[in-house]
Amino acid sequence: MDKYDLIIIGGGAAAFAAATKAADLGKRALMINSGLPIGGTCVNVGCMPSKHLLTVGDELFYPQRPRFKALQNGHKPPFDFRTAIAEKNELVATARQSNYVNVLEHLETVTLVEAKARFVDAHQVEAAGQVYEADKIIIATGSSTKLLPIPGLDQVKWLNNVTALELQALPDSMVVIGGGPLGLEFAQMFAHFGTKVTVLEAMDQILPRHEAEIAAELQRSLEQEGIEFRVGITVDGVAERDGKKVVSIRGGQGARRRRSLATSVEELVADELLLAAGIRANTADLNLEAAGVKTDRSGFVQVNQYYQTDNPIVFAAGDCIGKMPRGLYRKDAPGNSCSQGGFHGY
Fold it and tell me: How far apart are CA 72 and CA 167, in angstroms?
């Protein structure tokens, strides 16, 4: 059985920070990664690819809509969605290789194992049929899209921030469930590409954690770009009909109006459905009970101010502790989350 100073479960931003620091201190570390490639959310399916595609959308969208009457005819550049995705993939692959893979290869005291990890006991982790032991262990497994309790959702193929970036054909229409930063970012991205986008938000405003005036102004700006909103709604169900996604909603009256008491159901039909209304921690398969590590009801690892779990040798950081998503605007909220929100054009 191999013994290390540090075992890092995960390969994203928090995990990579731990690996580089371990190397700086001359400590022998083992990084065990599965799921997303090395680099995690930010380089693979987060900030880098989304901001690249947002910029592509800017250069397509805004030249067609100049601010001045003298330029009212605008200019419509040609657009190839498949090429945009391919260019994004090349950018991601290059950045992942140079910023993560090459760097990791030069960390002489750090070893990478590509496999799923699970705890054997309080000090040991198993991966690829081999058991490893360490003085300290860090859980940095990130998070993924939360499956919402919507009737029929488990029977419909839906998109998230990962699969939406893998589409090979531009959808004519899309419904986005979730009016937070991630939902609005993807709504604007696809709207700029030419997709008819409708955003659904259960609360009475988009960006529920922001001031109402900011949310209203942002909604106004996005509506001017062609995005439709339904706020204060309840999603009654989702179905697939003739290759289209059918989303049944109740309540709400659309742009900046107060919640309606109406009980009638409205059906929204679109080519694609994107979920952006919550995350869950990637901890379900870690066998945390064997290590004495506690989680909350959503699977987020419970830590103290030093990122330490109930097991004193096990720590956790990044999206798997949930502090950034749930305490985003608290100055004292720990976390190493990759913020997805980023709007363009105003």
Answer: 32
Q: Contact 45/36 with Cβ under 8 angstroms?
A: yes
The burial of 343, by beta-carbon neighbours within 10 Å (0-12 exposed, 13-18 middle, 19 or more buried), is given as middle
pLDDT tens-digit series, residues 78-131: 999 999 999 999 999 999 999 999 999 999 999 999 999 999 999 999 999 999
Q: pLDDT (tens digit, 9 = 90+) per residue, 292-306? A: 999 998 899 999 999
pTM of the model: 0.89
Three-class SS of 139-202: ECCCEEECCCCCCCHHHCCCECCCHHHHCCCCCCEEEEECCCHHHHHHHHHHHHHCCEEEEEEC
CA 334 to chain centre: 18
